[in-house]
Amino acid sequence: MKKFARILTASLLVLSIAGCSTPASSGGGGTPTGGGGAPSGGGSGDGTVQVGIVLPTKDEPRWMQDQTRFSEGLTQAGFTNQVSFSQGDSGIERSNVETLVQKGAKVIIICPQDGNAAAAAVEVAKESGATVIAYDRVITNTDKLDYFVGFDSENVGKAQADYLISQTTGAGNPLYLYAGSVSDENAFNFFNGAWKELQPKIADGTYVIVNSSEATALSDKNELAREDLAKILGQISIQNWDLGLAKGKAETDLIGAPVSSKGNVFILAPNDGTARNIADAFAADSDILSYKITGQDVEIPSIQYIIQGKQSMSVFKDTRALTNAAIQMATDILGGNTPTTTGTVNNGAIEVPSDVLEVQTVTVDNYKEILVDSGYYQEDQLK
Ligand code: GAL
Q1: Which residue in 214, 232, 326, 373 has the fewest CB atoms around it within 10 Å?
Q2: pLDDT tens digits, residue range 92-119?
Q3: Ligand 1 center to residue 60 CA distance, Å?
Q4: Ligand 1 pocket check: which of 186, 233, 318, 360 to mutate, most ligand atoms within 8 Å of Cβ?
Q5: Residues 150-183: pLDDT tens digits?
């Protein structure tokens, strides 16, 4: 990723939408047609859709928030819109895009379930003449993708690693590594960003990796090649970001670990859902005296875990700013203007013009300021 991330500014938040009600314009839950939900907002009333959004799953709170923000923001901007969900299935994702094309969508915003497989859905959209924006996760190995809007994923991993390092003293500290789904390009970038920080501390003996022989074998190498990353993620990734798999993997690691690799431990977990499940597994092991664990997405259950001392940090990706950036792009495109971008992201085939946003570390010490004072959450939601 070229480094052109932009810092969030108040102006980005102008379109910010509060609340979590299910909007009338949202599409149904992952039926092959992309299902239900009449388009709404400034429309002709004939069922056509100007902007179509396809999100990966309803099973993670963050995508439900995005659905609300898209529906409300696009309707407010005067565009008919429809949000549908892929429910973890690239086939459903493609059908959802076909449905949007049939409804006349001119801009199609896709957060891919699987970055490679989504290239087929991009083809479908492009053949219809629509402009395609990859949202939050880039779509890989296609030269047809028009734009990407997302966060600086390497900086997410960096924030996680920096946090762990800030909590660590002495030498020989057990380090457990986990990563997101290999179908998601972000998972590689999160881990890569973390590795660049952690590696010198592994090489100097501050940490000892417990659960990845591949990472241990590469512990002298700071700049990992794609094949190196693939080897490590082959051992530590959690397919589909699945919560049950995350817990199972942690339990297996703990069964395999000697008591000398327990005690006070450090855990790189890629996002909040997996972090909570991994944390539960570690908390249940009587040989674990304390653990520090990372997360990402500031999901409400994780902020509650942070307040209760069961998760150590999360990374805030302000989805208000992200949906606003995507809505702004759609508005520019529909108005015949070239969207503003901060740089490019290489998707394996081309340099994709991109709008890349920055992230923030959230802990028990600053969650009120960052999340409550900014109106992202209400204090009583976090109880
Ligand atoms: C990533 C996304 C994260 C997290 C994860 C699990 O691609 O950037 O914010 O939600 O997927 O869905």
Answers
A1: 373
A2: 999 999 999 999 999 999 999 999 999 9
A3: 9
A4: 186
A5: 999 999 999 999 999 999 999 999 999 999 999 9
For ligand 1, the distance from its centroid to the CA atom of residue 62, given in whole angstroms, is: 8
Q: Could you give the CA distance from residue 264 to residue 280 in angstroms, rounded to a whole number?
A: 15
Of 324, 315, 297, 298, the C-alpha closest to 13 is: 324
Instruction: State the amino acid at position 120 in one-letter form.
Output: A
SS3 of the chain: the string is: CCCCCECCCHHHHCCCCCCCCCCCCECCCCCCCCCCCCCECCCCCCCCCCEEEEECCCCCHHHHHHHHHHHHHHHHCCCCEEEEECCCCHHHHHHHHHHHHHCCCCEEEECCCCCCCHHHHHHHHHHCCCEEEEECCCCCCCCCCCEEEEECHHHHHHHHHHHHHHCCCCCCEEEEECECCCCCHHHHHHHHHHHHHHHHHHHCCCEEECCCHHHHHCCCCCCCCHHHHHHHHHHHECHHHCHHHHHHHHHHHHHHCCHHHCEEEEEECCCHHHHHHHHHHHHCCCCEEEEEECCCCCCHHHHHHHHCCCCCCEEECCHHHHHHHHHHHHHHHHCCCCCCCCEEEECCCCEEEEEEECCEEECCCCHHHHHHCCCCCCHHHHC
Find out whether the beta carbon of 197 lies less than 6 Å from any atom of ligand 1.
no
Closest ligand 1 atom to residue 271 Cα is: 4
**Contacts by 259-264 with C-beta closer than 8 Å and gap 24+?**
259/287, 261/174, 261/208, 261/210, 262/174, 262/287, 262/288, 262/289, 263/174, 263/287, 263/288, 263/289, 263/290, 264/173, 264/174, 264/289, 264/290, 264/291
If one counts every other C-beta atom within 10 angstroms of the C-beta of residue 183, the result is 22
pTM exceeding the 0.85 threshold for the entire prediction: yes
295 alpha carbon to ligand 1 midpoint, in Å?
11
Q: What is the pLDDT of residue 195?
A: 98
CA 296–ligand 1 middle distance (angstroms)? 8
Q: Which two tokens stand for residue 125?
A: 């959209």
Average pLDDT over residues 279-307: 98
